[in-house]
Fold this protein.
Amino acid sequence: MSKRLIPDQPPVQLKPDEQVRYFVDQYRNAVNSTTRSRLAACVRDLGLTFTEDELTVLAALDTPARVQEFLNTQIYYNNDHASAEMEETSIPPRRVLQTARAHCFEGALFAYAVDYLHGHAPRLVLLEASQDSEHNLVLFQDPHTGLYGVNAHSAFPHLDGRPPEYPTLRALVESYCPYYYSDRTNDPNDLTLVGYSDSFDLVAKFGVAWMSTEEPLWEIYYTYLDDTIALHYLFDDSDETHLYPLMRALKSAWIQVDARGCPFVSVSDLPSAAQELWHAFWRAFDRNDPRPVGAAREIERQFMQLTGTTPIDLQDNAEDLQYFLEAGYRIEQLLKT
């Protein structure tokens, strides 16, 4: 879990160089000179740019366990959805050091970069949720035991990292299930985690320059998931995979873009039985409820069996695609196959 805020006491906002210097003072004694030299050489060979103070802090975070401790105790959660007026952010790892703030995605990219620079061969994993915020995990494997662990950053209890004690990625993901409850209802019994992606290599797709830039990482934010990434349902023991719901909806023409460039759910292109369920769901669902209940919940379950998504998620995907297009990205960047 992220660094705790003290009630009624906003965190002190330091200037970027002051914040990094604060971290240097905290971690200087934890730095191994050999590790720092090796890190500096790696950074130089990759053509990356960090200040000497930034390198000192990064050198201290030479294991995934130390990265996780840093996220948990030094980095506040960047809640860029605290109000409708707040602008979303996609700050890079270097800015995480300079601001001591990160949301889930930003914390994951920070952990990925640091683990990569220390040779831990990280991979990214998406946790897929229904009608809830999704989560990003940075997977690593203990070289001695072969077991898996992850780094992660969250404002919610038990959704941060895991030590390397899991024999498979699925077993690791299952450890999140009891704690992954809806941020719409805040009901611990309203569990929303439905699946997870295969692990994938960000460096193979985006290179390494993003690790030391100070510019927002919108390209990674918007395009790191595409139709080449396979996902697995947690409630399905088969080896069958599926696409992220937005990708499947685009490929199946369930979501289309009209002449004005506005995405919409094309109900007539849904399977015939799903079309009937779509209309029945919106008749039964009380929009004042944070989540479907009663008849709407049962209709939603049937719709999910047919399509792999829910009416609310499908509508949310269309709205998310609007932001994607307005940011200047193209559907072709999501559909590669």
Notes: The chain has two domains: 16-233, 247-333. The two ends are 37 Å apart (CA to CA). The first helix runs from residue 16 to 27. The first strand starts at residue 76 and ends at 77.
